[in-house]
Amino acid sequence: MIKDKSIFIKNIYYMLSYAFVILNQGSYEDIAAEEFENIHNLFAAILSKGIGRQLKQGLYRQYLSCKEDIAVVRGKIDMSGTIQNRLARKRVLTCEYDELSENNLLNQILKTTVMLLLRHARVDQRYKNDLKKEMLFFSNVETIDPSTIRWTAIRFQRNNNTYRMLISLCQLILEGMLLTTDSGEYKLASFVDEQRMNRLYEKFILEYYTKECPQIMVRASQIPWVLDDGFGTMLPIMQSDIMLTQGNKVLIIDAKYYTHTTQAKYDVHTLHSGNLYQIFTYVKNKDAEFGDEPHTVSGMLLYAATDEAIQPDNVYQMSGNQISTKTLDLNCEFSHIATQLNAIVDEHFGK
Predict the structure, then answer these.
(1) pLDDT at residue number 73
(2) Which superkingdom does the taxonomy of this entry point to (predicted)?
(3) Which helix (H) or strand (E) holds 122?
(4) Where are the beta strands (DSSP E) in 71-215?
C-alpha cells in the first residue's frame, strides 16, 4: 500500500489532526512541517510536544488510598494492623490515608508508552533526548503492564481533559504496535495494525466532514430497526461510521481500512460480503424511516486504497437505493485526499 512512506506518515499526522483538534494548535506546527521516515518518530514527536505542554500546566494528580506503618497518627487508624504491630512490639501505628499523587493511571500510561519508545531502535536520538528530559518529572510515577490497561474504563473530566489526546495516542501505540516476545517482554511492531488504523480512518473521515463541510449534517448515528411487530430482542445495534444528511438526502458511509480491499477466489475478485450486507441493511432500514415522504438514502463502502491491481469502484442500484464502493488514496498529498472526499459530497448533495 505504501508508495511513498514519508507522504503516508505525514497523512497519518493529518488524520490525527482531524481526529484530535488540539494538534492544530500552535505548538504542534513544527511537527506538521517535518518529514518523518517512520511512524515511531512521528508518535515520539507528538508525545514529546504533548507531554511538554502538559508539564507546563502541571501533571494531573488525584487522591490515592495509602496504608503505612508510621509513628504518628495520619488519617484513619487501621486497628488490625496496629494490633499486629503491638504484638510484634513495634511502636508504630498502621494508618490509612488519602494522598494527592501524580502516580495515577493516566501518568502511568504516558510513562509506559514513552519507555517503550525510548527502547526502540527506530526512534531517532533527538526525540529520545527530549522524552528523557521530560521523564525526569515522572520520577514518582510507576510503569505498568500494558496488557492490564482497561481503556474503556478511563474517564475524563475537567481536571484531566487535557490528557484525552495523549491517552488516545498511547492507546493507538500500545494496542496497535505492541507485540509480546517469546520471553514475555514487550516490543513495538513496525507499524500500526489494521484494526487500529481502521478506527483512525473512520474518525478522520467523520471529523473531516464535520469541519470542512458545514453545509451538511455529519453524525455517526445509530439506525433503528424497522420492525413489523416492534419485537427486537437480541437484534444487534446498527451503528453507522458516518452519516451525511442534507434535507431529505442521506448518505451512509462505512469506512474500511484493509490490507486487501477485495476477497479473491480462483482469481475472481469480489467485495467482502459482510460489508455489502451490512451497508445494504443500514440503507434499507434508514430508507424505511421516511415512509411516503420524498427522500433519497444511499450507501457507500469507502475503502482505503491499496497497491492491488483491482480496486473497488462501482455503483449498484439495489431495491430502489444506490449502493456504491469507492477507494480513498492515502498515498498522495493531503490536498488530493481532501479533493477526493469533497467530490463524494458534491456527487451526492451537489456543489
Answers:
(1) 77
(2) Bacteria
(3) none
(4) 76-77, 93-101, 178-180, 186-188
Residues 342 and 286 in one domain: yes
* Residue matched to cell numbers 481533559: 161
Q: Which residues pair with 298 in a beta bridge?
A: 251
Reported as a single tens digit per residue, the pLDDT across 249-279 is 999 999 988 776 666 666 676 777 889 999 9
| Whether residue 107 is found in the same domain as residue 97 | no
pLDDT on residue 3? 46
**Confidence check: pLDDT of 178 > 90:** no
CB contact at 8 A, 170 and 110: yes
Identify whether residues 16 and 116 lie together within a single domain. Answer: yes
Range of the domain at 68: 62-101
Beta strand segments in 295-345, E: 296-304, 314-318, 321-328
Radius of gyration of the chain (CA): 26
Q: Where would I find the beta strands (DSSP E) of the chain?
A: 62-70, 76-77, 93-101, 178-180, 186-188, 217-219, 222-223, 238-239, 242-246, 249-256, 263-265, 268-270, 296-304, 314-318, 321-328
Residues 153 and 84 in one domain: no
Please report the pLDDT score of residue 1 as a whole number: 42
Tracing cell 505492541 back to the chain, one arrives at 178
Q: Higher model confidence: residue 84 or residue 351?
A: 84
Q: Is 57 exposed, middle or buried (0-12, 13-18, 19+ CB in 10 A)?
A: exposed
> In the chain, how many domains are there?
3
Same domain, 130 and 239: no
For the stretch 46-98, pLDDT in tens is 999 999 999 999 999 988 877 888 777 777 788 788 888 888 888 888 888 77
